[in-house]
Amino acid sequence: MEVSPFRGIRYKQRTVGDLARVLCPPYDVITPEQQKLYYEKSNYNAIRLEFPEPTGDSYQRAAITFQQWMKHGVLHLDSASSFYLHAHRFEYSGAEKVRRGLIAHVKLGSWGSGIYPHEETFPKAKGDRLQLMRACRANFSPLLSLYHDSEREIASILSHVAQEKPLMSLRAKRSNLLACNEAHTLWAISDPEIKRELSQFLSSQPLYIADGHHRYETALTYQQERAEEQSDSFGSSVIASGAKQSLNGKGAFNYVMMELVDFSDPGLVVLPLHRLVRGIVPSILGGLEDQLRNFFVLEFVPLRADSPDWSGLSDDSCLGILGLQPGSLVVLKRRQDISLEAVMPGNRSQAYRQFDVSILNDIILDKVLSRAKDLDVAYTVDLKEAYRQIKERRYQLAFLLNPPQPEMVKAVADAQDRMPSKSTYFYPKLPAGLIINPLD
């Protein structure tokens, strides 16, 4: 991979005032209600670029807004090419954590050529992001990727940089799928020698996409489109060679903005996305418990009044189910006389077969509930929300998953396999608007 510094676009604080009011989460976790709230938060909130309201040609409206903000000094292009060190402070389980990442340009390449995915993607989400990229020619939020710094080479450099005066520092209480108090501190690394060291080390490391699979695949499509546009100027006889030159060149569309985080970073938190399911006819739902006993040992845990106590269960718990037994959390444990891996698809890796979400998808949803043709599945990281949806009977069942470990994600990617979509939630999401990456 080629990892390099770039000239980022940032908000001008003199114009927008409180920087905490102009950031928003990435598009994929914003509900319509939250979208409206971010619009009201500031006339300059990045929601107008990242996820504009769906009225008229929203993509073109975002492009016009972006152009106007650049023209009138709401946003400005940094004068020097830099790496950006981002310290992301947040609260989790009653403690403050800090996740430290390096925002950089990463040269686009096909999957497996130094960059590795771990989840499947949805075509619809990629179509939406492609239209926005075509209109605005920019990345408004970075992808999150992971790398290994076993000798702490990068960590020591970043610790030294963090002693210097930052570009910006802000704290905000942000409403997301889980509310938390967040703080962001940003440093620009423009020293030529430090940039060379960072680029040399990171360009030699495999990178693993943690969050942003759709945006990476969209960037590959956009890169191909821009290369073909440029090749047209060469004439029809050399279009292929012209496109190849464009793909190998230094044009900004050949890169994507990423925040790179060490696998061992103490602030790296990965949450599961629990499944909410409805559309199961009573005859199938009534026999589900017996069907599950063909694969699992079932344990019934009385529910507390406010939320199921899922975190304190034993290590051999595969899944938890709300809604199957009134007043109880049904815990599924592996049967010693059954190999769940043997029941999984034969073309899947061993790493894939060990994931709880794979067991849920391939055994419970595809086999046990195979006769339920009209399943409606939703996702949440919030246990209390899952419990509320079942209690209010908006969904019939909630399948609770264990937190995936980052090294398990790496194992699936190294096996050139992919977990089901929405298997991991790297918490909290990186904000949109902190740094913007121009693609022209």
How many strand units? Answer: 21
Helical fraction: 25-40%
Ranges where pLDDT stays below 50 over 5 or more residues in a row are 175-179
| Count of alpha and pi helical runs | 16
How would you sum up the global shape?
globular
Mean pLDDT: 91
Question: What class would the helix/strand composition place it in?
Answer: alpha+beta
Number of domains: 2
Strand content: 25-35%
Radius of gyration: 23 Å
Distance between the termini: 21 Å
Main sheet characteristics: 9 strands, mixed
How would you describe this structure to a colleague?
- With 440 residues, this protein is an alpha+beta fold.
- It has two domains: 278 residues, no CATH class; 130 residues, 2-Layer Sandwich (Conserved hypothetical protein from pyrococcus furiosus pfu- 392566-001, domain 2), CATH 3.30.1760.
- Helix 4 packs parallel to helix 5, helix 5 packs across helix 8 and helix 8 packs across helix 9.
- It is globular.
